């Protein structure tokens, strides 16, 4: 469909899957993508396992306009994202001359030895271009439709800020929320009918619980403002017309 740009995200790291590290990047990327008119369609969390990363990356890069990855580009043995991306694209993973210079200069200014371990942060697929890192110097990289960035939230956000001006954006997905005092078991059938009447919209229901009572937030999304307004009014009318028995005011 014209005007639609899509994206996927790969969150890479055993520490995420084990629960040791709590991801803070998914929500940030989702907020930013929505704001600029890119639909974040899928997020996968992948272990530090090269075949798993390669398989996941090849699947999503073939399906979406852009892919953003976080994690696995540090200096240690388990930082294997650069290797996996190289395998996915069928190119060597090698030390990038510009990245080596940036890192060498940074460590020299601080009087820190530029060890072989630290040099690993200069590795990237042949043909990749840099994503500048204004926080800690070590760059991310971009190859094809894939943008590889750090997992540390502050660094990821800074890298993403540098990527955003280069991205093609689409028509923004607008949204409107409607409060329903009824549970999903009450609104399910009439809400499905409204969705069929407005196929160009996306209507979601999100159960809430407060003060011992279930209620539902109904969110209407559309790219066309008039379509959004019409569907929102239909949902509001549905809520007003519903006369659910008190005992039906439940989650399901």
Automatic annotation (TrEMBL):
The MoaB/Mog domain covers 8-170
The record's Pfam families line, in alphabetical order, gives: FLAD1_M, MoCF_biosynth
Q: InterPro entries given for it?
A: CinA (IPR050101), FLAD1_M (IPR056596), MoaB/Mog-like_dom_sf (IPR036425), MoaB/Mog_dom (IPR001453)
Taxonomic source organism:
Mesorhizobium denitrificans
In Swiss-Prot or TrEMBL terms, this protein is called Competence/damage-inducible protein A
């Amino acid at each position: 469909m014209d005007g639609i740009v899509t994206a996927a995200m790969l969150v890479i790291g055993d520490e995420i899957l084990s629960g040791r590290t709590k991801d803070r990047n998914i929500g940030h990327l989702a907020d930013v993508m929505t704001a600029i008119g890119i639909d974040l369609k899928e997020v996968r969390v992948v272990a530090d396992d090269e075949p798993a990363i390669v398989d996941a990356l090849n699947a999503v890069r073939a399906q979406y306009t852009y892919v953003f990855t976080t994690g696995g580009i540090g200096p240690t043995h388990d930082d294997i994202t650069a290797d996996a991306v190289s395998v996915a694209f069928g190119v060597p993973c090698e030390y990038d001359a510009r990245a080596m210079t940036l890192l060498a200069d940074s460590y020299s200014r601080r009087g820190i030895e530029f060890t072989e371990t630290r040099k690993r942060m200069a590795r990237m697929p042949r043909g990749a271009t840099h994503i500048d890192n204004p926080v800690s110097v070590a760059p991310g990289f971009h190859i094809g439709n894939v943008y590889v960035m750090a997992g540390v939230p502050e660094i990821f956000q800074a890298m993403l800020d540098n990527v955003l001006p280069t991205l093609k954006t689409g028509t923004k997905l607008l949204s409107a929320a409607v409060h329903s005092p009824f549970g999903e078991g009450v609104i399910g059938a009439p809400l499905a009918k409204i969705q069929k009447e407005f196929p160009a919209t996306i209507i979601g229901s999100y159960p809430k619980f407060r003060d011992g009572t279930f209620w539902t937030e109904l969110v209407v999304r559309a790219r066309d403002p008039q379509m959004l307004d019409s569907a929102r009014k239909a949902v509001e009318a549905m809520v007003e017309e519903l006369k659910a028995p008190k005992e039906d005011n439940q989650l399901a």
